[in-house]
Every structure is written in structure tokens, then in C-alpha cells.
Amino acid sequence: MAxxxxxxxxxxxxxxxxxxxxxxxHLLELADAIALPPGRVRxxxxxxxxxxxxxxxxxxxxxxxPPDLALAAQLAEQRDRLNEAELALAELVGTYRSSxxxxxxxxxxxxxxxxxxxxxxxxxxxxxxxxxxxxxxxxRPQVVSDDNTEEAxxxxxxxxxxxxxxxxxxxxxxxxxxxxxxxGAGVDVRTTGQIPLKLIVVDSRFAxxxxxxxxxxxxxxxxxxxxxxxxxxxxxxxVWANSRPFGTTNEAxxxxxGRIMQLLLAGFTDAAIAxxxxxxxxxxxxxxxxxxARAEVTSRVQLGWHARExxxx
Length: 313
Hints:
Blueprint: H1 10-21, E1 25-26, H2 27-34, H3 38-51, E2 54-56, E3 61-64, H4 67-70, H5 72-98, H6 103-108, E4 109-112, H7 115-128, E5 132-137, H8 151-156, E6 160-166, H9 167-170, H10 175-185, E7 188-192, E8 199-202, E9 206-210, E10 221-225, H11 226-241, E11 244-245, H12 255-265, H13 270-277, H14 281-295, H15 300-310
Helix pairs in contact: 1-2, 1-3, 2-3, 13-14, 14-15
């Protein structure tokens, strides 16, 4: 029986289901319907009434409380208990894993395991920012997406946010649209060919990165403090310094031409650019040809040089 995980017995669930199809049924009718002795049905009904799943009427007749009202609260309580158990387990695992480290080392490095725990710690780091958040964005979003990030709230508090994105991220669906939304919110964005790994650094005080480095997963992740966090900041600053600004096209280009130049300079093929802009490769080729004519160049390499010199991408 499915409801046993909410503490409902097999007899209680059988009676509850019978009552759903027989509103106001008599105790003896229920016993006949589910082939149980009246004594067991009486005990089951009393249990349902106590849980708020059934309502007694006159002459030993009963009706059910709608399941979305009666069971939703119990299900939410059960989820809360599971979340508490998950947090307790994560704490025990952290204690076990750090038992071999000295106290000073434990203050510098923390292991966070489980997708939910990794996502929560990412949000906590964003909340803790006082001045700046720096992020490497690569590949497909995993535990953090546009739906569960505190980026907007941090920017509203006056926090400066910088992001370096790479080609692996830009090929994801809606990547360009998401980047443009971040730019509009005030994030400074730069692009590069390939980023070493996913990373967030907060005020040079905290950093978080996956244990597997540039592997596909972010679970488990490391939270760094002190000197290790400052090393992560140095890595970000070095990559930032050698990356290209995104979204700073010259006003002489319209929005679509600006996007095309940014993606072209990032190394995208015509087909990949067309996918991001939701248009056809032929349209992309035609617009690139028009840009070449406008720049008075005869090759895409020359177009790239012209774009860099004139702020086209």
C-alpha cells in the first residue's frame, strides 16, 4: 500500500479508498465492501478519524476528507523530516571525512556532498557576498540554474558580479539569451575558449569548485577558505585578464549583427550561431558577408581583426 510511508496502515488505506467511492457508507457496508471483519474496520475508521482523513456522521456512517487537504500536510511534514535527516547525514559525513585532518586544515577545506547540499551551499555563498562575486561558467548547468540562483538579489545589494563563460556553455540552448539577461542585470561578462573548471569566488574569502575539476559533475564539491580561496581568486583574475568582453559591441551594429560577431569571434560555426539565434545558417552567412563588405575585407580572419579594432565584438 502506497500510504504506509505516511503512517497509514493497510486496513486504514483500504477503508479510506472504499469510503472515497461510497460517501456516507455505514460501517457494515464498508466491512462487506473490503471483506474485513467489522471490528477491524472500526479500528481502521477510528484511525482515519484521528488522522483527519475521515469524518464521522450519524448512525455509524462516515465520509472522507479530500486527499489533497488531508494528506498534503502529512507529506510536507515527511519531506521536512527527510530534509533534516539529509542534513544530519551530510554533517556526519563531513565529520567522518575531516577526522583525519588537523583543526587548522578543517577550517580551510570543506567537502560538500549531494546535489541538494551543493546547490544550497552555492546560494549561501552568494548570500554571504559583501563586495564581489566571481564565477566561471562552463558546460551544462547542473545544481544551479536561472531558477535557483541569487544573482539578481546580490546585484540589488550593490554586489559587483563578474563571469567568464566559455564555448562549452555558449552551445547550450538559450545560452546567449541567458547571458544577455545577466548583462542587462549588471553582470560583467567575458568569454574565452575553455575554462579550467566551474568556480565561484566570493570576496576572495570563500571559493567553491568541484572535486572532479573539469569533469562533468559538481558533486562532491570543495569549499575553500583563507589561502586556498585566495589562490582560486588568482586563477579567476588570470583567466579574466585574458578573456574577451561580451556584449560591448559598437552602437554601429544592430543587436543581431552584434550577437553574430560575438559568437563568430568565440569560434562558433555558422550552424551553431544559427541555433543560438534561432535562425538559418544561410541567414547567418548572408549577414557575415554583409559585415565583410561593410568592413571592406575579403576574409573572416580580416573581419575578426577589424571587429577587435572597432569594437564590433
